[in-house]
Structure formats: C-alpha cells, structure tokens
Amino acid sequence: MKEIELKLQGKIKRLTNKTFKFDERVKDGWFSAVYFLKTREIVQKYRPNYIVTMQFFQKDHAVLCGTDEVIALVQTFADDPSGLEIYSLKDGDQIEPFETVLTITGPYQNFGYLEGLIDGILARRTSVATNVYNVVKAAGISGTQKPIIFMGDRDDHFTQQAGDGYAAYVGGSTAQATHAMNEWWGRKGMGTMPHALIQLFDGDIIAACKAYQETFPEDELSALIDYNNDVITDALRVAREFGEDLKTVRLDTSRTMIDQYFLRNQHLLGTFDPRGVNPELIFALRKTLDDEGFNHVKILVTGGFDEKRILEFEKKKAPVDMYGVGRSLLKINIGFTGDNVLLNGQPQAKAGRRYRPNPRLEKVELQ
User: Mind listing the GO molecular function terms for this protein (predicted)?
Assistant: First the structure.
C-alpha cells in the first residue's frame, strides 16, 4: 500500500486530516476498465499531444463527497500531475442534478485511465454522505436536532470503514461506531454494550452494567434494555439501581417480536404495528421513566432505521433522543459519469453531452 498526503493549494479547503492509502496496483491499471487501458495505448501512439477536458456529474440533489480522495488519487497516479488543470467543488457542497463537480484538463494518456476509479469514489462517498444528510434532516423536523450515530460496521466490508465514516461525517453524523470510521477526521469510535455482554452475564442486565461501569468508570453508562424483550421492566430495574449514573437506555428490539409491555396490555393493540421498536413503545418508556423521576435518562433507538422510519417517529413526536443507523446509509444510489467534453479547448463530446461550465468550481494546484 502506498500513502500519499493530500496537499492542496489555493481556495480548496481540505476536510480530512489523514493521509490516503492507495493500492500501488492502481498505477498498473489493475482497477481500471480494460478499454481505458487500451485507449491510453492508442492515444499515446496516435494523439499524444491532444488535450482533453473531462468533466464529472451526477443526476440527483446530493451532498458531494470524495473530492479530496479523488484529487489525492490523481496526484498519486497521474503522469505529470502538476501539468494537469483541475477545478473542483468541495466535500460537503450541496449539488444539483447534472451540475459539474470536477473537471480535469490535460493529455488523456496522463490521467484518463483513472476515470472509472474517480466515478466510483465519488459515487460511494456521495451516496453515503447524502444518505446520512437525509437521515439527519429527518431527525430534526420536530425542531430539535436528534444526533445520528453511524453504525455501518456490520453492513459492509471492513476495509470501507474509514472512507464511509468520513462520508457520514460530511453528511452530518458526528458519532461513529468504530475507530476506523473516525480515522480521516480525527476522533475515536464510541459505543457501550452489545447483547453479547448481557448474554455473558446469563441475561442479567444489572450485573452486565455493573461490570461495564467498574471497567470503564469514565464512560457514561448506557444500558441495552431489549435483551429480555421487556424494555420497560428492564429500564426501570437499571434506573433504580444506578440512578443518576444511568445516562441512556438503548432499544434494539427485533422487528419480528412484540415487547412484553404490549402482551401485558393487550387492550392497546389493534391500531398500530406493535413489532420491534415503535413510537408507542417509546412513549410508554418515556412516561414510565419520568413518572419515577428518571427524566435525565435519554432514549437511543437502533435496529433497521432509515429516513422513512425516522420521519414516522419524528412526525409522531416520539420522545427519542438519538438514532443509531447502519445499513440504510450504505446504499449506493448515486452514480457519477465522467465525459470528455473538450478537445484542444473546443467542444467535442458524444451526442447528448456537452461542456457545462460551473462558476462554483475552484482551481486546485497539485504539487
């Protein structure tokens, strides 16, 4: 693996604070579509002095991410990168459909084989950033912005965690589940207890919480309360045991299960879906905690949350304090396209495509 520290000059402000790590086989074209490699050979033979402008765009309203990474890629693997002319928007910029986000001008054979890699970086990072942005927006419609914890570690290959965590940060999530997810922007991962910890204490949530508190006394105590599928009973048990030391309770009830609270109060059933974590369960939990004086305890919900589900909770004003979201944030639903649109400074592009100047682009100087 090769490391390159991104050094940008001019107006572009770098958001990441770490070096990028690239596989050295990029230089050999290992990750490039073969037709780009063949085109490079042909151009070197027949059109070595021709200058092209390649522009990149996508087709949605989105939050752009990946530009720093792309610029580092070009700086690392393009031939004579200082001879290229690059204009770019910044990570975190909100972009319109078909808006040009990046242009690269220079001899095609010096950088053209990187086109697919650039598309892929922008597609993944922008998709994650936009997904997170939309979820964060949904979690704030009630007037109070609820934090979003990025919990995508179990939903994708672990090698993607650093870039995905950075994209989530760009989208508005400032709490991540692993240290790797924080690598590019300078924090450590956060988290408390999984179901496995309670299982190892024979299902005794009190014993598990005591062990956690004794081992990590500097941490705020957050109890996972759905292990026994009786969140209100277990929340009260933990709150009565730990009092002011208990800061948060987390619900992660499976969508295939109905909490014991509803089985004890079947007169409540019939007007809503009682499975999993649902607003009615949150209302009951909040009321029970408040009635016993545990107003300080916050409620964190996890398990299958996405933008639509969070909107449902927020529209009903469910008393959730934080959302933990994973899989839905990693859907790659934004694709980028790179097109050669100028040849030696003159319009030349396939039918339906044209050079789209964008005054928002800022010049990047590579070293």
Answer: nicotinate phosphoribosyltransferase activity; nicotinate-nucleotide diphosphorylase (carboxylating) activity
* Segment 249-259 mean pLDDT: 95
Pairing of strands 85-88, 102-107: antiparallel
Residues 119 and 177 occupy one common structural domain: no
Residue 241 has which token pair?
A: 């045991």
Query: What's the confidence (pLDDT) of residue 181?
Result: 92
Segment holding 364, helix H or strand E: strand 362-365
Least Cα distance to 314 among 126, 102, 142 occurs for 142
Q: Are 84 and 366 in contact (CB under 8 A)?
A: yes
Find the domain containing 306 and state its range. 141-330
Q: For the chain, give the number of residues.
A: 367
How many Cβ atoms sit within 10 Å of the Cβ of residue 250?
23
CATH number of the domain that residue 37 is part of: 3.20.140.10
Q: Does the predicted TM-score (pTM) go above 0.85?
A: yes
Over residues 54-87, the pLDDT tens digits come to 999 999 999 999 999 999 999 999 999 999 999 9
Q: In a 3-state reduction of DSSP, which class is residue 219?
A: coil
Residues 147-158 pLDDT 10s:
999 998 989 999
Question: What are the residue ranges of helices labelled H in 65-114?
Answer: 67-77, 108-111
Domain shared by 167 and 119, yes or no = no
Degrees, nearest 5: CA angle 353-355-361: 130
- In terms of Cβ atoms closer than 10 Å to its own Cβ (0-12, 13-18, 19+), residue 97 is exposed
Residue 233 token pair: 């009973």
Q: What are the tens digits of pLDDT across the range 102-142?
A: 999 999 999 999 999 999 999 999 999 999 999 999 999 98
- For the segment 31-57, what is each residue's pLDDT rounded down to a tens digit? 999 999 999 999 999 999 999 999 999
Check which CATH number belongs to the domain holding 293 and give it. Answer: 3.20.20.70
Our count of domains for the chain comes to 2
